[in-house]
Design a protein that fits this description.
Length: 699
């Protein structure tokens, strides 16, 4: 029962009680009954003297406070003489309690129904009022909800319109970036490519200087374009990672080799150390990993004037399905002030932000690297000392290829137990070679310079434990590698020792000088593990003398492999000439086609090992031509590798190429090393587009 109903009931009960009390009081004074003469009131006789009857006076007798009982009143008139004029008159009456009256009992019996009726009526009235209030509230809330629904519908329509406009703006932005990418990269491919060809010709010193400046300017412009495109894709949320099987060492070695010319030009040592426990095959995005390494190594090269740059890779943690690798890029450069350590990872931020700064750049490389590292499940941080150098660390998580073990060549057994003298003035290089050669079962001994090497060689001959192999650096103080080779040639006891030379700055005429001095191999730093192992297996234990054996270089290693017959489908004459010259220069047979239709005709009439397919061509583009080739292969059952070449470098372009049936993807401007890496994957029988991506395509 509600409070209001309870209060109404209290009011009714109070009113009824007040009524009974009033009736009771009246009944005590005026409730009379006749014909009963039990008790007498003579003991309370009262004499009343009355005047003349004719006077209209009505004397009253009052007996207040009589208790309930039966009473008899006797009255007798007397005259003035005291004689009674008539017999006395008797009047009997009774005073009863109110609860003994019939009407009171009747009223008492009728009170509960009346109270109940009143309570029910009050309750019903209250319910009516509550119902009306609820109806009013429901009506008001319904109206409010209807208004809110209408407003939500309006907001939804407005949001949909805003989404459509935003999508249209994003599409327009993406199309604009794609078009700009294509329009800029197509001529840039010609500029960079033809400059490379020009630099390989006989030029005067002045002409070579001008060509080098053109090449450097083109690379700087291309870096700016790549950074802006990458940052735009990251900000738009259209930057995604791939999950591919790739060979980590080959990917890193290709990256180091692409940066080696810049390091050698500045006289810097560029070293790479990958711990033996790091697996060869991993699952991840090799192109994005390479992009981060290029950014960090490129910064190290930019800000280091003398000394060395070291890349180290080791396993930070591992479980059954994945492992976390720790990468560190250490330089001996200018260092970074303490107040700039955190801000350098912000967009468009540089250590020196003034217009007069010494080192240029967009300030986006480290920002993009931080985003990529985060997407790879790792983090990036910095250790630096001003004037001493900097070390950038980052971690990344990769999948593990289960039951994947690198096959060991049978020829490697010939290296086990072989003593080798390593001569290098750089401590880091000695440590790297010591660890690598030891992992192959060899017994390396370290020497710091040529003089010490000669002393070690003579002592080994005297103890009848000669070194069959010497691995020496070309650039060393006091006595360089060529002088060491001359001393060894002049020493009769050392004529049977095979000498391999590693150089940071190859010069014209070095090959002829190596042949004259009897040097067996001449390799350019940084030397990849596979390249070094191949060279060791070729020169170690050879039955030919050093004079009869051809000089082993990176070119002879490549020429010893199977050449490819390549179909080049490219409509741009400048890009076609550049690719044609590069491929022919490296010993490949190339046939050209100006569009997709000509490419199909060539494939129908000739045999090719690989197709370099431009995406945008007249008459029949690269996607349509690839679709027809793949359709025909369903009948022949022979798979022809197709590598896409495109000036587009936006999100989805690579995926679209792979979805169309292409095996790999190169983004223009074509980098020669990346192009050769694609061909290498075909030589190895691999169709996975892993390490074959270009540096620009990785961006």
């Amino acid at each position: 029962m509600s409070k209001c109903t309870f209060r109404a009931g209290i009011r009714v009960v109070t009113a009824v009680a007040s009524f009974f009390l009033t009736v009771t009081a009246a009944a005590r004074q005026y409730n009379f009954r006749y014909n009963r003469t039990e008790d007498s009131l003579t003991n309370q006789a009262v004499e009343v003297r009355m005047q003349d009857r004719r006077e209209p006076s009505h004397p009253q007798l009052q007996f207040p406070g009589l208790p309930p009982n039966d009473y008899r009143l006797q009255a007798q008139a007397r005259d003035s003489t005291g004689l009674c004029t008539a017999p006395p008159s008797v009047f009997s009456f009774e005073i009863r309690p109110p609860w003994r009256t019939l009407w009171f009992l009747a009223l008492l019996g009728a009170a509960p129904p009346v109270i109940i009726v009143l309570l029910l009526r009050t309750r019903n009235q209250r319910q009516i009022e509550i119902r009306r209030a609820l109806e009013d509230a429901v009506s008001a809330r319904t109206a409010e909800l209807a208004w809110e629904k209408a407003r939500a519908e309006i907001e939804k329509v407005r949001a949909e319109q805003e989404t459509l406009r935003a999508d249209a703006a994003n599409r327009a932005k993406s199309e604009f970036l794609a078009n700009m990418s294509h329009e800029i990269r197509t001529p840039m491919n010609g500029v960079v490519g033809m400059t490379d060809l020009l630099l390989d010709t006989d030029l005067t010193a002045e002409q070579r200087e001008y060509a080098d400046m053109v090449r450097a300017s083109a690379e700087s412009l291309l870096t700016i374009i790549n950074d802006i495109l990458d940052f735009s894709k990251i900000e738009a949320g259209k930057f995604e990672l791939e999950s591919l099987e790739f060979k980590l060492r080959e990917s890193i070695e290709a990256t180091m080799k692409s940066l080696a010319p810049r390091a050698h030009q500045k006289g810097l040592e560029l070293n790479c150390c990958i711990e033996p426990n790091v697996p060869q095959l991993l699952i991840g995005d090799p192109s994005r990993l390479r992009q981060v390494l290029i950014n960090l190594l490129g910064n190290a090269l930019k800000f280091t004037l003398r000394g060395e740059i070291n890349l180290r890779v080791n396993v930070a943690s591992a479980d059954r399905d994945s492992l976390q690798l720790h990468f560190s890029v250490q330089d001996t450069g200018i260092g970074i002030p303490a107040d700039k350590e955190h801000s350098i990872f912000e967009a468009f931020t540089q250590v020196d932000g003034s217009t007069a700064r010494r080192f240029g750049g967009t300030g986006l490389g480290l920002t993009i690297s931080r985003k990529l590292v985060g997407m790879m499940g790792g983090c990036i941080w910095l250790e630096t000392a001003l004037g001493v150098g900097s070390t950038f660390h980052f971690t990344a998580v990769f999948g593990v290829v289960k039951s994947a073990r690198e096959p060991l060549p049978v020829e490697r057994d010939r290296l086990k137990g072989m003593r080798v003298l390593v001569v290098d003035d750089n401590l880091t290089n000695r440590r790297i070679l010591d660890r690598l050669l030891s992992s192959w079962g060899m017994e390396p001994v370290m020497g710091e310079d040529g003089a010490q090497a000669l002393q070690i060689l003579k002592q080994a001959h005297e103890t009848q434990q000669p070194f069959p192999l010497v691995l020496t650096d070309a650039q060393m103080p006091n006595m360089d590698g060529f002088q060491l080779a001359e001393e060894m040639r002049n020493c009769h006891s050392l004529t049977g020792t095979v000498l391999m030379m590693l150089t940071s700055t190859g010069k014209r005429g070095d090959a002829a000088r190596c042949r004259q001095l009897g040097i067996a191999a001449y390799l350019t730093k940084p030397v990849g593990q596979a390249e070094l192992l191949d060279s060791l297996l070729r020169v170690a234990g050879s039955s030919k003398s050093s004079k009869d054996q051809p000089l082993v270089t990176r070119h002879t290693l490549r020429e010893g492999r199977k050449p490819l017959r390549i179909l080049l489908a490219e409509d741009n004459l400048v890009n076609q000439m550049f690719a044609l010259r590069i491929l022919e220069k490296h010993g490949y047979t190339v046939v050209t086609a100006a569009n997709g239709r000509q490419a199909l005709e060539r494939i129908d009439n000739e045999r090719f090992d690989l197709v370099l397919m431009d995406v945008q061509m007249p008459e029949l583009d690269g996607f349509q031509a690839t679709a027809k080739i793949r359709q025909a292969e369903k009948v022949t059952g022979v798979h022809l590798p197709i590598v896409a070449m495109t000036a587009h470098a936006m999100q989805g372009d690579k995926e679209r190429c792979l979805a169309a049936g292409m095996d790999s993807y190169l983004s223009k401007p074509i980098n020669v090393k990346d192009l050769l890496a694609v061909l290498q994957t075909v030589l190895e029988g691999s169709t996975a587009p892993s390490d074959a991506l270009s540096e620009q395509g990785a961006r």
